[in-house]
Amino acid sequence: MAQACARVDELVRERVPSYYVAINAAKVVAYHEDTELRDAIDEAHLVTADGQAVVWAARLLGHRVPERVAGTDLMLALLARAAQRGYAVYFLGATEEVVRACVAKARALYPALRIAGHRNGYFKPEEEAEVVAAIREAGPDILFLGFGTPAKEYFMRRHHRALGVPFAMGVGGSFDVLAGVVARAPRWMQRAGLEWAYRLAQEPRRMWRRYLVGNTRFMWLVARELLARRGQR
Are the CB atoms for 46 and 7 separated by under 8 Å? Predict the structure, then answer.
């Protein structure tokens, strides 16, 4: 987490438009199936493992991943950092009710926080250029993008230069968490890599395919990679 926050500080100082992607098991699966998403991830300026399964799999395959950096935790850490360092933030995404609740909660938690603006995530494709122009005009240092995957990755890859924001971050459902609409799993479940089970219990109809089918596919991809490496020895 400390390394990720330090990197964000560097990007804000450099003033070069950049974006961040958090990787979980579902996104690893999608990476192998969606070329546009793959390009967005490959071109990202900062990537962290948002999912204990990804950390474990990476270590199993010999990659050094220090820790899990959950997108929600990073967003909250950056809000605190922004308030301390004078960074301006912008919230884009979710419903009007949720994004307004996010802004209100952020102001309550961090009274010194500079909020450059906010907008809900419901706009037509032909309105995208107008949304991008409005954010650029607002001039935030950090953009929090509350879209789902792959919409947020597509948007950041397409528009990060035009946005002119030093650090754009897709946070998915983290707006719902900040607004108090959705509760996070207990810490022990997060540490045990069971946050997916908690989310599945909360919204089984929406999440079953992502977690049950997606996690099975993820395990198959990891096993395939392990077997391929053993075959090369």
Answer: yes
Tell me if 66 is assigned to some domain.
Answer: yes
Query: What is the rounded (10 degree) CA torsion for 92, 134, 100, 180?
Result: 10
Dmax (CA) for the chain in angstroms is: 57
Summarize pLDDT for 199-228 with one digit per residue, the tens: 778 777 777 677 777 778 888 888 888 887
Q: Answer yes or no: is pLDDT of 233 > 70.
A: no
Q: Could you tell me whether strands 88-93 and 46-49 are parallel, antiparallel, or unpaired per DSSP bridges?
A: unpaired
Residues 6+ apart with CB under 8 A from 201: none
Q: At 105, is the pLDDT very low, low, confident or very high (cuts 50, 70, 90)?
A: very high
Note down the domain range covering 50: 17-224
**Residue 42 scores a pLDDT above 80:** yes
- Give the CATH number for residue 154: 3.40.50
The pLDDT assigned to 231 comes to 64
Q: What letters, b where the CB count within 10 A reaches 16 and e where it falls short, cover 6-43?
A: ebbeebbeeeebbbbbbbbbbbbbbbeebeebeebbee
Higher pLDDT, 172 or 129: 129
Distances (CA, A) of 34 to 5, 22, 27, 31: 29, 16, 10, 6
